Amino acid sequence: MDNLCPVCHKGILTSITLPQQATHGNRHFTVMLEYSCCTYCGFETTTAEQERNNAALLEASLHNLAQAA
Ligand SMILES: [Zn+2]
């Protein structure tokens, strides 16, 4: 099972989305970033796909900030 936790080998890595504070210059904003979290030990990681999604979300948020300015 490829979603097995690499730390405890007991839990399953489950996709979760959490609001994350980000800063750009003197602006603060919140983006919903995707993580994988172990159901057993709470280990958090991001997959390559989640990294891509998060980067795209951050870029979109920065773009919106630039347009609002
Ligand atoms: Zn674990």
List its traits:
single chain; 69 residues; alpha+beta; Ubiquitin-like (UB roll); 1 helix; 3 strands; 30% helix; binds zinc ion
**Which hetero compounds are present in the coordinates?**
zinc ion
**What kind of sheet is the major sheet?**
3 strands, antiparallel
> How far apart are the termini?
47 Å
Overall structural domain count: 1
The geometry reads as elongated
The structure class reads alpha+beta
CATH class: Alpha Beta
Spans of at least 5 consecutive residues with low confidence: none
Strand tally: 3
Spatial arrangement of strands, main beta sheet: 1-2-3
Helix and strand element order: EEEH
Under CATH, the topology can be stated as Ubiquitin-like (UB roll)
Q: Just name the CATH architecture.
A: Roll
* Helical fraction: 25-40%
Determine the mean pLDDT: 91
If helices are DSSP runs of H or I spanning 4 or more residues, what is the number of helices? 1
Task: Give an account of the 3D structure.
The chain has 69 residues and is an alpha+beta fold. It has one domain (13-68): Ubiquitin-like (UB roll) (Roll), CATH 3.10.20. 30% of the residues lie in helices and 38% in strands. It has one helix and three strands. It has a three-stranded antiparallel β-sheet, with helices on one face. The longest helix is centred in the last third of the chain and has 21 residues, at 48-68. The model has no long low-confidence stretch (mean pLDDT 91). Bound molecules: zinc ion (ZN). Zinc ion binds next to loops. The site of zinc ion has 8 residues, from loops.
